[in-house]
Design a protein that fits this description.
With 195 residues, the protein is mainly alpha-helical. The protein has nine helices and no strands. The radius of gyration is 18 Å and the shape is elongated.
């Protein structure tokens, strides 16, 4: 019985991993359940043993994607707060350059494509953005306490703005197929806003 449970857990994990990849590459609408099961090596019928719908899988895929964004490094007190913030966005920038500007951010992608049509996905997107903004705000607050960032605006306000600017930079980089939007983001955010 234990081997069957491990096999089912592995199949579920494979489905989640495949869904993150398929949604990120093709988008929600274009990634069919068959595409996801094929990519995971699972039989199509087995999908419904683990998820009641593609929408339910999208919610779990967003959680998994968020776990890979390295938000915990934004709270690493062994690194200066502004350094943490810059390294976080450098990691995300490099990830997008490595994929040749083809993927952007799954949270933003699903917000645009699905959130208006699915309350479950909309809420998951909202929670993902909230978690991300909270991690950014924590580092910004520390930078303010250290005197490295102006206290003219609340950390949460700055975090939400920076997150919105990042999502916009991703869209521009994908449209342009170049890192120019990232260069602008770093120049304005770290040269003007977070100083």
């Amino acid at each position: 019985m234990e081997a069957l449970t491990v096999a089912r857990a592995s199949l579920r994990e494979n489905l989640i991993t495949a869904a993150v990849e398929q949604f990120h590459i093709h988008g929600y609408a274009a990634a069919s359940v068959k595409d996801i099961t094929d990519a995971s090596g699972a039989a199509k019928g087995s999908f419904y043993n683990h998820f009641e719908s593609k929408e339910a899988l999208a919610v779990v895929a967003l959680e998994r994607y968020g776990a890979g964004r390295r938000l915990e490094t934004l709270r690493d007190n062994s690194v200066a707060p502004l350094t943490r913030l810059r390294q976080h966005f450098e990691f995300l920038r490099d990830e997008n350059i490595d994929t040749e500007f083809n993927r952007g951010c799954l949270v933003g992608d699903l917000a645009v494509e699905v959130a208006d049509h699915s309350e479950a996905v909309r809420e998951s997107v909202r929670q993902s953005q909230e978690t991300w903004a909270d991690a950014l705000a924590s580092a910004i607050a520390e930078a303010q306490q250290a005197g490295d960032v102006s206290k003219a605006l609340e950390p949460t306000t700055l975090a939400r703005f920076v997150l919105s600017a990042w999502e916009g930079a991703l869209i521009a980089a994908r449209a342009d197929r170049s890192p120019r939007a990232f260069e602008v983001f770093f120049t304005v955010v770290f040269g003007q806003i977070l100083r």
